[in-house]
Amino acid sequence: MMNKSYDADVIVIGGGPIGLASAYFCAKQGNSVILLEKFSIGNQQGSSAEHVRMWRIMYTELNHAKLAIKSGEMFQALEKEADVRLLHKNGLLNFGVETGYTPEGTLNTAVEVMDQLGKKYTRLNKRQIEDRYPFKNLPDDFSGVYQEEAATIDVKETLQSLLRLNKINGVDIRTGERVVQMVSEANGVIVRSETRDYVAKKVILCPGSYVNELIYPSFGFKFNILLWEMCFAYYRITDPTLTFPMWFQFDQPRNGHSNLFYGFPEAHFARKGFVRLAVDWASHTFMDPHEREFSPRKLDIQLTREYVMQHMKGLDAAPIDMGSALMTHFPDNLSVLDFLPKEHVPYHKNIVLCTGGWAFKFTPLFGKICADLVNQGETDVDIREFSILRDAIIQPNERKNRMKHSLFWGVIFSLLSAFCYSALTTLIKINGVAISVPILVFIQSAFCLVFILPIMFFKFGRASLNLKQFSTIKKQHLFRTVFSLSIGYCLFLAIKKIPYFDAVLLYNAFPLFVPVVAFALLGTKMNKRLWPFILMGFLGVALTMNIDVHLVSLWAVIALLSAVCAAGSIVMMRKISATDNSLKSLYYYFFISTIISGVIAIPEFHEITQTSFMLLMAMSVLFFFVQYFLVLSATYTTAQVVSSTYYSNIIFSLIFSIFLLNNALSLSVIIGMVLIVVGGVGVIFLQKNLKKLK
Ligand SMILES: Cc1cc2nc3c(=O)[nH]c(=O)nc-3n(C[C@H](O)[C@H](O)[C@H](O)COP(=O)(O)OP(=O)(O)OC[C@H]3O[C@@H](n4cnc5c(N)ncnc54)[C@H](O)[C@@H]3O)c2cc1C
Question: Among 433, 556, 582, 683, which is most buried by a count of CB atoms within 10 Å?
Fold first, then answer.
């Protein structure tokens, strides 16, 4: 328990621009403030190394543009108070081709945002770009947009001014003071540095790339960040009559790198007579900031050098003053600006975190928001997009506590999926004979795509349907689609050729394949104590289905293959759910599967009767819910639990067959059903207890 008086109302950890701005606004709001920085103010170890950053309003997201405008006004207020110039207006030229989403957004979407804001811009074709600016040999399909309000930020002056203003406002700045742990309690936070303990009512945490180093020892979870060692260099201007703008070139990725380049104009506060250019990419990426190497990467500099030789005029292509800075990337490229998550942190509103993203341009705004959050518990700025709880921000294996609490929902969704699946296969058996399997699979995928489009639209907005995002889809989505499609082809084909229950039985062997497939694809080891229950479940399946010798045929092997694919699909879904939103994953799945199954179905196309069409509709609705509930289930619990509960589809199938096909229940079937339930429930409980023991 805390039993000493406070060292300060607020402790700010991290003396980069965001930490300094937060301390400044806290002090202005009447708090006593201590700022702890492990190196020095203006150090080159973090994200704010070097002289220049871009301030711009040409953004793909309207809210970002509005935030930048607000922040620009706050920069001007700081300039006035410190009597300095921080923003040097020089306009921004974006040019190139439409690409998938890049760290800078895309070329044309930013134009739409400018229109919405009523901001002026100039459109340029390739020739106009080459005539007005020092570029050459640009591809013919390049076009550009120039927006005059953008500015180069003087990084060092910003840091120095904030430092000065902090001192004037009584902030106690302590450099060389590394914080190693925080403890959040009911009446404040203990901040442990390498030299002593501090106590404050609230903490603002602005540690940049070093965030996990402090969060993990304090609260046992980690953020899902990837650090880029971004290299840059200066190039001498050989033709001073040319106008070098601030610019960004959009292009499609090439030879394993982003093919995105950017540059700044000559700045008197940087290197006079030189411009600073770089590739917007890093060949060296890692998660632990200590893996950083300070010498600039040969490849990254070489790429920029080649760009200068091929596409720029009036520059000497010999790079000088090369350096690098650490960029902190969350999967969606945005910052996190929020209280720490309540799932992991007691009295979570004691600590506000701001890290990651392209945030220099938001320095005063983010600083003010941090101060408002600790002082008032809220901000009047819309910061929902920077939420700590958005998808994939916290590392998945560290969300185990949340997962344990959601076992209930994992089981419920898996049961619902199993129910829909049994209804679907029963429908195929009763009525589906007239429709060929490729057509069936294609129509299902296409219908599901149509079902999910409005859901995506209303939940995530029009931008979420943009096909450009498919260029960034990970291999996992493709694997998952191929596995899931293959289940349909194998199982539906087998159901038509061998007895319904035999095919369903073989399909239901998939939980046995899950650990094998998880090991093969992801290297995941399975706990041996789960095996007896899974085997018990399989024995139950065998009894329920009254397995017989005729099963060993080509069609039986195909049915068994559907089980392998189902295991693969579940494992991939689980993997994807750790980083991607479940609805978006489904959208990708239905989109890709419609294309693949459409191509496969072309030779099979034939006229479909009205009755068959209605049936296909019903099957598609069921199929949609099978997938939707399964994805939800995998989001809440483990692959083993999903698969074990999914056994219940046999029981549902039996109930359907008793009522729709007039089948009778034998003793072996009753025993089988009991074994299935005991096996499934046993796995679920064992799984839960194993977690508790850990
Ligand atoms: C090459 C490059 C180009 C960029 N271009 C732009 C751009 O054009 N426009 C833009 O808006 N943004 C840009 N960014 C992003 C921008 O630079 C960063 O968002 C911003 O500098 C982050 O500031 P910060 O205060 O959050 O982090 P930092 O500046 O990294 O500061 C964090 C501080 O916390 C300290 N610290 C960490 N852990 C501890 C601890 N345990 N105890 C005490 N102190 C600690 C560190 O020493 C460091 O000084 C760019 C980034 C890079 C790398």
Answer: 683
- Residue 325 lies inside a defined structural domain of this protein: yes
The more confidently predicted of residues 295 and 226 is: 226
Between CA 266 and CA 43, with CA 53 as vertex, the angle to 5 degrees is 105
Where does 203-256 have alpha helices with state H?
Answer: 211-219
Tokens of residue 344, six digits? 């992991």
Could you give the dihedral angle defined by the CA atoms of residues 432, 438, 441 and 445, in that order, rounded to the nearest 10 degrees? -140
Residue type present at position 690: L
pLDDT band at 330 (very low <50, low <70, confident <90, very high): very high
Domain count of the fold of the chain:
3
How much is the pTM?
0.65
Distance 494 CA to ligand 1 centre (A): 58
What separation in angstroms does the CA of 690 have from each of 221, 536, 685? Answer: 20, 19, 9
At residue 99 the predicted structure's pLDDT band, cuts being 50, 70 and 90, is confident
Rounded CA separation 435/428 (Å): 9
Q: Is ligand 1 within 6 A of the CB of residue 296?
A: no
- Beta-carbon contacts of 207 under 8 Å, excluding residues fewer than 6 positions away, are 13, 14, 213, 214, 355
The verdict on 375 and 433 lying in the same domain is: no
- The answer to whether residues 462 and 484 belong to one domain is yes
Taking a C-beta distance cutoff of 8 angstroms, is the pair 219, 211 a contact?
A: no
Q: Is 199 in the pocket of ligand 1 (CB under 6 A)?
A: no
What confidence category does residue 324 fall into, taking pLDDT thresholds of 50, 70 and 90?
A: very high
Judge whether residue 75 has pLDDT over 90.
yes
Q: For the segment 571-621, what is each residue's pLDDT rounded down to a tens digit? A: 787 667 655 666 777 888 888 899 999 999 888 777 777 887 888 888 888
Give the pLDDT score at 694. 34
Q: Is the CB of 327 under 6 A from ligand 1?
A: yes
User: Are 315 and 362 found together in one domain?
Assistant: no
